[in-house]
Write a structure and sequence with these properties.
CATH topology of one domain in chain A: Rossmann fold
Number of strands of chain A: 7
CATH class of one domain in chain A: Alpha Beta
Helix content of chain A: 40-55%
Radius of gyration of chain A: 23 Å
CATH superfamily of one domain in chain A: HAD superfamily/HAD-like
Number of helices of chain A: 13
Oligomer: homodimer
Largest sheet of chain A: 7 strands, mixed
Shape of chain A: globular
CATH architecture of one domain in chain A: 3-Layer(aba) Sandwich
Chain lengths: 328, 328
């Protein structure tokens, strides 16, 4: 088109077409334009372009996501702990002795300080009591009912609605580009599986997490798998690369986390493996979500944050980079 | 078409079209027509027909296959043991002391009786020596080279060509009907993953097997996962439902095995879960493969065979049901 044809109506037409195209094509509408968003899109375009040096076959496009603090919130404490405390309350009628016995008394009295005074031993006792001793089918049913109804104490939202809208878009964008998306979380694998498919589009067989031991048996002639009060595997820190190896058996090219619990997964994914992408969700938004990093007891982010610049990991500044936090 | 038009040429044309259609549509060409083949096809048609009472959503079409003796041969001993023995020979130059030390001396002398005289302890020593002490990347490379070249002592075929052609067709048929196919084997998970995708169309993340413990570390600044000489999980017998839960997190609707090591997987898949399909490969063909069941040291099939009629499991009579054993 020669310049003399560029009348105002033509210009407007062209601009509106460009705007339309941009609006239709933005795969990450809840991400503000800028360096962070651009780095993600640029990576995906490079690994999916057959003419690019960085092209990766679809089968090798493995993406791993931490869950707590990366795909949903984790404050004031991990949502799975809220589940455990709710279970103690639900189970209390069958355990009258808990009224006088810590850590259960503390849970029932709403006295978390008394619970925490028992340290790690108390937490393990609560988890073992609420997460073991039933069949896997029974546990799935318990989690399914809880996740459908349980609400966060301060936001009043269902926990399952405290997932990050920008990360949902990122998961969908990667899958639209033939990535296979996995969760690799320190949370309990059987606590996540009942709802990750509906919530994140991630099916049970693509969920990696911490686990307790289980045992197969025929009970009254019916096969069941029973959950035992014994730790099997902790999928955190050095455990994350091990969990990835065990469950996936391929090297991820994309990993996302938010804490030092994800540090080793980010190393494993990116160091010496190109092309690759490491992403850290930095909780910087005290107003819309929470703001915490180096000194937090939950989701401490310290070493991985120091390491990010020299490793070339992309740090998401939640306050700056995200237009919104949760789905409408 | 009125009957008077049914001249011989027309009849031949119709017949040839029918024959063509049948030939094109036979999804299991290496299976002889009969009850076994028909039971498989009938099951797949029922669970994929939306108007059938037995319809199953694609996401729930999970099929699990044992490997040794089910997808490939396992005589005169598990092929992974052949791999271990070959590794002892390959590693011997770095271990001059093995010339005088059992069980390694027995392996190097080709004296398997001397090896077996050491019982389980000797086998564990051989497996630990040949399967641990390297990184997972190094082990993958070792397996990849072995599987590309190693040949069976009596058939002279590459081990990877001793896979069962009828089972390859069954895997492809299930996948064409939106089943997700998994291996659930007592064999080593990292021994299988390097070649199951090329051989069976089953990617690493859909392989479940026995494992040894591994450890993540930064070695000279590079992330590696090191294989440790310690058993982590035995994916056999009661372990198979546990492995299915851990890796898949869904209930299979189809399970195939060939020995009592698969008995619990067959129970778990079928008892109290309809629709479902249990399949047992019965090695009845001493001429084209091997013939063994109740008294075999490898792949003993006894309790599961007794259980098959009352559970409604389909028993494949290899000699009768399969037109051929291996691919051409």
């Amino acid at each position: 088109m020669k310049l003399r044809y560029l009348t105002l109506p033509v210009l407007l037409l062209v601009l509106s077409q460009v705007a339309n195209a941009l609006a239709q094509e933005d795969p990450l509408p809840s991400w503000n334009d800028g360096k962070t968003k651009q780095s993600i899109i640029s990576f995906v375009e490079r690994v999916t372009n057959e003419n690019s040096e960085d092209y990766v076959q679809p089968a090798d496009r493995i993406a791993t996501f931490d869950n707590d603090g990366t795909l949903w919130s984790e404050q004031p404490f991990y949502f799975q702990l809220a589940f455990a405390l709710d279970r103690v309350k639900a189970m209390a009628p069958q355990h009258p002795e808990w009224k006088d016995k810590q850590p259960f008394k503390g849970v029932l009295d709403g006295d978390l300080k008394a619970v925490m005074a028992g340290g790690k031993k108390s937490l393990v006792e609560i988890i073992a009591t609420t997460h073991a001793g039933m069949t896997t089918d029974e546990f799935e049913e318990i989690v399914t009912q809880w996740i459908a109804t349980a609400k966060h104490p301060t936001t009043g939202r269902l926990y399952k609605e405290m997932v990050f809208q920008p990360m949902l878009e990122l998961l969908a964008y990667l899958r639209a580009n033939d990535f296979k998306t996995f969760i690799v979380s320190g949370g309990g694998i059987e606590f996540m599986r009942p709802w990750t498919e509906a919530t994140y589009g991630i099916p049970p067989e693509q969920v990696v997490g911490s686990s307790i031991k289980t045992q197969y048996e025929l009970r009254d002639g019916k096969p069941v798998i029973v959950r035992l009060p014994e730790v099997d595997f902790i999928d955190d820190k050095e455990g994350k690369p091990v969990g990835i190896l065990s469950h996936i058996g391929r090297h991820p090219i994309f990993a996302a986390g938010n804490s030092d619990g994800d540090w080793q997964m980010l190393q494993y994914t990116t160091i010496g493996h190109k092309p690759s992408f490491g992403l850290i969700v930095h909780h910087t938004d005290a107003e819309r979500e929470w703001s915490y990093d180096r000194d937090s007891h939950i989701g401490q982010l310290d070493k991985a944050l120091d390491d990010a610049p020299r490793r070339g990991w992309t740090v998401v500044d939640m306050k700056q980079d995200w237009k919104r936090i949760y789905p409408n």
